[in-house]
TrEMBL record, chain A:
PANTHER family: SPERMIDINE/PUTRESCINE IMPORT ATP-BINDING PROTEIN POTA, SPERMIDINE_PUTRESCINE IMPORT ATP-BINDING PROTEIN POTA. GO terms for cellular component: ATP-binding cassette (ABC) transporter complex. SUPFAM superfamilies: MOP-like, P-loop containing nucleoside triphosphate hydrolases. Keywords: ATP-binding, Cell membrane, Membrane, Nucleotide-binding, Translocase, Transport. This is Spermidine/putrescine transport system ATP-binding protein. The keyword Membrane applies. InterPro entries: AAA+_ATPase, ABC_SmlMolc_Importer, ABC_transporter-like_ATP-bd, ABC_transporter-like_CS, Mo/tungstate-bd_C_term_dom, P-loop_NTPase, PotA_ATP-bd, Transp-assoc_OB_typ2. GO terms for molecular function: ABC-type putrescine transporter activity; ATP binding; ATP hydrolysis activity. Residues 13-241 form the ABC transporter domain. The keyword Transport applies. It comes from Actinacidiphila paucisporea.
TrEMBL record, chain B:
PROSITE patterns: ABC_TM1 (PS50928). It comes from Actinacidiphila paucisporea. Belongs to the binding-protein-dependent transport system permease family. CysTW subfamily. SUPFAM superfamilies: MetI-like. The keyword Oxidoreductase does not apply. It holds the Pfam family BPD_transp_1. It is found in: Cell membrane. PANTHER family: PUTRESCINE TRANSPORT SYSTEM PERMEASE PROTEIN POTI (PTHR43848:SF2). This is Spermidine/putrescine transport system permease protein.
TrEMBL record, chain C:
GO terms for biological process: transmembrane transport. It is found in: Cell membrane. Its main location: membrane. It comes from Actinacidiphila paucisporea. This is Spermidine/putrescine transport system permease protein.
Length: 401, 268, 312
């Protein structure tokens, strides 16, 4: 799952034992992290998990309690923000309200003593498709336009790393989807390393090459989006990244590459290669499966299910039609609330709340997790973290000043 | 069912009361304006005699009046500069930092505004008297700067506290040194608050009579001239100055509105 | 590919934080004090020190020729109170009535500017502030003209017999308005009205117009909406406005001097004449402190009752 960090010149960012504490509260536990140059890297987690604090330490807006930050192989821990070759797209953009779009974008160049900025600013505004807006003030722009100005203002400086702090949080859903693709396009075009902080798992998976899932000041798991989704390493990741059905089961034995399990009398098969936990016969393990991998049939049709598939009986508790699919909640002896997403290809009229059903799925789609952890971790992470830190780490930082 | 005029009255009774209140506020200025064109029979300019533009043609035709007017303007300019500089620094400290003694400082800023002028004036006067400091321009300036200071602090502090700290962080992130950040971002953003504080200082200083009277000695500011002349009979020129100040103030505000409006009108 | 670990709790001692940020932090701790230095020093020397000195003056005895010495002559306070209590009472009464009148007159105007003025809002605001720029002495003198004995206002009030009523109430005398309590209170109200209107306007302007609609939607009549929604939300403005009106009004002596007679002298007049004409500094100082104490007591009780901490 992980390897030791290595110092390579190709690394855009390297954090070594970086941590931050405010009084008795540890926002970020000692963290080692390497981001390769040119990648689109996402820090994903609920509010207050330490992702913004990490980003601010890279930008130099927050002094780390311990550890160091290296950019392109150079230690910048002691440098103030204005001497670091990174730029930030702030949450809510922080556009200078008294300067127009042009001057906002030119700000960084001018501060570095560059006199002829016209060409560069023009090019940059074209890149973000704001060519005609140069003389407008920020308050005359829509949210999406402001967002693009913020990106242009940071990118024009050709930073080694672009830091994005929840850059799409203030936009409505449709615009957010559109801007995700836009940002991805820009990143591919300019080839600069992006570090993107977000609490939106779909956003992280859409945009990033690599996602680091953070929880309570620690990186819980790191990898490519598909890898994280298919092989979550903990219940937190399993629940926070999409939806997972976790079934607590007993190990009855191993055969070949498979682990045999039994849960509430139902026999299940789990590929050993997909189980991150140590298993011993008689021990317990959490068997997980994603809702869209599960097929649903009425109990009357149980015989039609192919041999060798994992199957679990149950009763429909609730169903909601959402267009592309129907989402069912199933009460089953192995788990009181199993979720199943059935694509709307042919709808079975018998599948209504109360109907007895059988769920079945390909055993290869099962993943195994250590049973000695909170099965609900990451389910309502937002609520818990919000209670811990009312406005995220940023406020904690200001309060501590 | 109510009749229509009754319903109209019910809906607009607040506005009517507001207009009457506005009339109450403006009435004296109209009287001042009207009587600036009077040619009074005796020394007292209280009753209408007949129309004349004498006073407007010779605004400085009264001994000492224009001298006191320039003195007051000079005092107001200096007091405004002093109070604005000191007050802005204090406001930044209070708005931007948490430090020991912050609550006490807030209290210290609040007290002069909650103190009757006669008490402040008399106290400062007593101190000067006993320190054997000669009353005059400097004592007045010190007093004016003192009571204007708090108003500047309040105006600037409110503005600075409502500013997004992320704007300054963004500037630092975009290679602005702390000094550049202050000059390019912080100061322009705080400018409306500073301007409001300065304007208030100017008005307060120019118009102050009570505190000045305790600290002026034989120096005569414009309000003191008016006060003195009220006993002997106010010259018509006082009305001319009063009206001119009113008109200048309104024109300044209108001009400011137009400039601001044009800037806002830049949107298309 | 990317490599990362969340190190185990027993990871080796992390790299030490370089010294530079620390030094910067030390400087940052000093910055507020440096910023405060000049302003606070100014207030300490020219506001607090005079107050302290005034306190010592109030217990001094002596004369202008022989000089004054601190003799802890507290009796000055009792003598001052015994002699001038009517002036104190009058000051508090006049300024209290003027404050109430300012609220009654100012609230509709502030409300109109905030919610009903539409595009006239800025014009009306300018008209509220602009009179400030004509010296308030000149404007107060204008009231002498307005309320002059033979003037149209007094004639009108006489014709409709209002002055008979007010005379009976002892707030005017005969067919005069000038040199009566009514004239003084009228002048005080006029002079401090903008100090009431501006804070009221500021707090009213902040109220979301949709609250009125929501209240109306929830079956409140316009009057109930005002009583239950608008007015409570404007309370900070009401408190600030009444303080900004009452405090300076209670120490004022201009209106009593210009619009009143010797029977309407307020405590400000006494302090001023003790200080500038009688040259009895201890009495002037004692009177100042009694006035301060009275205001402080009233304001404290008032703020407690109003239940708001928003002073500034």
């Amino acid at each position: 799952m992980t390897t030791e960090p290595t110092a390579a010149p190709g690394d855009a960012v390297r954090l070594s034992a970086l941590s931050k504490t405010y009084g008795s509260f540890t926002a970020v536990h000692p963290l080692d992290l390497t981001v390769p140059a040119g990648s689109f890297f996402a820090l994903l987690g609920a509010s207050g998990c330490g992702k913004t604090t990490t980003l601010r330490m890279i930008a130099g807006l927050e002094d780390p309690t311990t550890g160091s930050v290296a950019l392109g192989g150079k230690d910048v821990t002691a440098l103030p923000p204005y001497k670091r070759p990174v730029n930030t797209v702030f949450q809510n953009y922080a556009l200078f309200p008294h300067l127009d779009v042009y001057e906002n974008v030119a700000f960084g160049l001018r501060r570095r003593g560059i006199k002829s900025v016209k060409q560069q600013v023009g090019d940059m505004l074209d890149l973000v498709q704001l060519g005609g807006m140069a003389r407008r003030k920020p308050h005359q722009l829509s949210g999406g336009q402001q967002q693009r100005v913020a990106v242009a203002r940071a990118l024009i400086n050709k930073p080694e790393v672009l830091l994005l702090d929840e850059p799409l949080g203030a936009l409505d859903l449709k615009l957010r989807r559109q801007m995700q693709l836009e940002l991805k396009r820009i990143q591919t075009e300019v080839g600069i390393t992006f570090i993107h902080v977000t609490h939106d798992q779909e956003e992280a998976m859409t945009m990033a090459d690599t996602v680091a899932v953070m929880n309570a000041g620690r990186v819980e798991q790191l990898g490519a989006p598909a890898d994280l989704y298919e092989n979550p390493g903990s219940t937190f990741v399993a629940n926070f990244l999409g939806t997972s059905n976790l079934i607590e089961a007993e190990v009855t034995g191993t055969s070949g590459g498979d682990i045999q399990l039994v849960a509430a009398g139902q026999r299940l098969t789990l590929p050993a290669a997909r189980c991150g936990a140590e298993v011993t016969t008689g021990g317990r393990v959490l068997a997980g499966v994603r809702p869209e991998k599960i097929a649903l049939v009425h109990r009357d049709d149980e015989d039609a299910i192919a041999e060798g598939r994992n199957r679990v009986p149950g009763r429909i508790v609730d169903s909601s039609f959402i267009g592309v699919s129907t989402q069912y909640v199933i009460d089953s002896p192995v788990c009181p609330e199993l979720e199943v997403f059935v694509p709307n290809v042919e709808r079975d009229g018998r599948l209504v709340p109360g109907a007895p059903v059988v769920l079945h799925w390909n055993p290869a789609h099962t993943f195994g997790l250590d049973a000695a952890q909170d099965i609900d971790a990451g389910l309502d992470a937002d609520a818990v973290e919000a209670a811990l830190s009312p406005d995220g780490a940023g406020t904690a930082a200001e309060a501590a000043v | 069912m109510q009749t229509r005029p009754m319903r109209w009255l019910r809906k607009n009774v607040v506005v009517l009361a507001g207009v009457l209140a506005l009339g109450y506020l403006i009435l004296p200025n109209l009287v001042v304006l009207a009587f600036s064109f009077n040619k009074p029979k005796g020394r007292f300019n209280y009753t209408w005699n007949h129309f004349s533009t004498d006073a407007w043609q010779h605004p400085c035709g009264v001994a000492d009046m224009c001298g006191s007017l320039t003195l007051s303007l000079r005092l107001a300019v200096y007091a405004t500069i002093g109070a604005t500089v000191l007050g802005t620094m204090t406001a930044f400290a209070l708005a931007r930092y948490r430090f020991r003694g912050r609550a006490a400082t807030n209290m210290l800023i609040f007290l002069p505004m909650a103190m009757p002028e006669v008490v402040m004036g008399a106290s400062l006067g007593t101190l000067f008297l006993n320190m054997r400091i000669r009353f005059g321009f400097w004592t007045i300036l010190i007093a004016h700067t003192m009571f204007c200071l708090s108003f500047v602090v309040v105006a600037v502090k409110a503005r600075v506290m409502s500013m997004d700290p992320r704007l300054e962080q963004a500037a630092q992130d975009l290679y602005a040194t702390p000094a550049q950040t202050f000059l390019r971002i912080t100061l322009p953003l705080a400018a409306p608050g500073i301007a409001a504080g300065a304007l208030l200082s100017f008005a307060l200083s120019f118009d102050d009579y009570i505190i000045t009277s305790f600290n002026a000695g034989n120096t005569v500011t414009f309000p003191m001239f008016v006060w003195g002349s009220a006993q002997r009979g106010t010259p018509v020129q006082v009305n001319v100055i009063g009206t001119a100040m009113f008109v200048v103030a309104v024109l300044l505000v209108v001009a400011g509105q137009l400039v601001g409006g044009r800037r806002r009108g830049a949107r298309t | 590919m990317t490599a990362a670990t969340a190190p185990p709790p027993t990871s080796p001692a992390p790299a030490t934080v370089p010294a530079a940020p620390r030094r910067a932090a030390g400087r940052r701790r000093l910055t507020p004090y440096l910023l405060l230095l000049a302003g606070v020093a100014w207030l300490l020397v020219f506001f607090v020190a005079p107050m302290v000195y005034q306190a010592s003056t109030s217990v001094q005895t002596g004369s202008l020729d022989e000089g004054f010495k601190v003799t802890w002559h507290v009796a000055t306070y009792w003598d001052a109170l015994r002699e001038y209590w009517p002036h104190f009472l009058r000051s508090l009464l006049y300024s209290g009535i003027a404050t109430a009148a300012c609220l009654a007159i100012g609230y509709p105007l502030a409300y109109t500017i905030a919610f009903r003025a539409g595009r006239w809002r800025n014009v009306v605001l300018v008209l509220v502030i602009a009179p400030f720029f004509t010296s308030f002495l000149i404007r107060t003198l204008a009231w002498e003209t307005i309320l002059a004995d033979q003037g149209p206002v007094v004639s009108f009030l006489n014709t409709v017999h209002v002055l008979d009523v007010t005379s009976w109430l002892h707030i005017t005398q005969g067919d005069r308005v000038l040199a009566t309590p009514l004239a003084v209170v009228c002048g005080l109200t006029y002079n401090f009205l903008p100090f009431m209107i501006l804070p009221l306007y500021t707090s009213l302007e902040r109220i979301d117009g949709r609250l009125h609609e929501a209240s109306g939607d929830l079956y409140a009549t316009p009057f109930t909406t005002f009583r239950k929604v608008t007015f409570p939300l404007s309370l900070p403005g009401v408190v600030a406005g009444t303080l900004l009106t009452f405090i300076p009004a209670s120490g004022d002596y201009i209106n009593a001097e210009l619009l009143g007679s010797t029977n309407q002298k307020m405590i400000g007049n006494v302090i001023q004449s003790q200080f500038l004409r009688v040259l009895d500094y201890p009495t002037a100082a004692a009177l100042s402190f009694i006035l301060m104490a009275a205001i402080l007591a009233i304001v404290t009780v008032y703020i407690r009752r109003a239940g708001t901490e928003e002073l500034v």
